Amino acid sequence: MSKPKIVVIGGGTGIPVILNSLRRENVDLTAIVTVADDGGSSGRLRSAVNIAPPGDLRNVLIAMSDMPRFYADILQYRFDEADGPLAGHPLGNLIIAAVGEMQGSTYKAIQTLSRFFHIEGNIYPSSDSPLTLHAVFKDGHEVAGESHIADYVGIIDHVYLTETETGNAPIASKNVVKSIMEADTIVLGPGSLFTSILPNIVIPEICDALLKTKAKIVYVCNIMTQRGETEHFTDADHVRVLHEHIGASIIDTVLVNIEKVPESYMNTNKFDEYLVQVEHNFKGLKNENVTVVSNNLLKLRDGGAFHDGEAVAREIIAISHRQEVKI
């Protein structure tokens, strides 16, 4: 049997967890990673060097590599706050920025570093240009910049992207559309709905490819709601928002965690953006015309609630090996 082709789309800290587990399976793996981050080290570098922000790409490079833990720790090393212009920059971000400047492209830099770190699979930034994420709220107010969205008190209606430098509509990176069209299974998330997942799929070419692909599309629903984004959202609300942005009901299967996060477990000082556990609305999910796979997908560590990468990977592999094909 040929390896199932699995494409994972997202960003932030969510998708590295499942990519690290999926890379150990007998699959042809591709990651498509958001480039709309404008905060922290990534934001400072994209302004200084005019490159796509490297932070999410760095995390994916590490997750998909079999490099020793010590090497990963070097790439993740963050300069001390007393280090002047270098303060707060992870070393890996600086390396990606340097190679990107050498080769004139973040896309080329990631392909070079993928070979350098012996990655089996593909990593593509969703666009080769830095993008600005715009959030339009229900009251009509608009906020530009991913790092500012959670600061406005309101309910997000929709998001869209522009190229930061030109203001034009974003263009997908090379091979992104091709990988979506050739995939057997496409995984959305896990990750922040409005700032990690949607910044990929609202790129017009990616949205169009998701509408046309014959691949099974799986959404890994978040475990916790997120301040300024998905407050009071159920799992069905997450799926509804994705379908509204895409313009059609394309998700075939939703993975939902049914294990309870212990009361008062979350370290609210460390994870202050996360609020409460996402509630289930199985009737709402049925109305979205999706198949629901519910299981214990929870992993508690470091005072936070995360997806168990191995458990999620097992479900994705099982879905990928099912024989039904879209018509």
UniProtKB/TrEMBL annotation:
User: What's the chief localization of this chain?
Assistant: cytoplasm
Its annotated compartments are:
Cytoplasm
Alphabetical keyword list: Cytoplasm
Q: InterPro entries, alphabetically?
A: CofD, CofD-like_dom_sf, Gluconeogen_factor
Q: Which Pfam families match?
A: CofD (PF01933)
Write down the CDD domains for this protein, in alphabetical order. Answer: CofD_YvcK
Family the UniProt entry places it in? Belongs to the gluconeogenesis factor family.
Q: What does this protein do?
A: Required for morphogenesis under gluconeogenic growth conditions.
This one is known as Putative gluconeogenesis factor
Q: Which organism is it from?
A: Lactococcus nasutitermitis
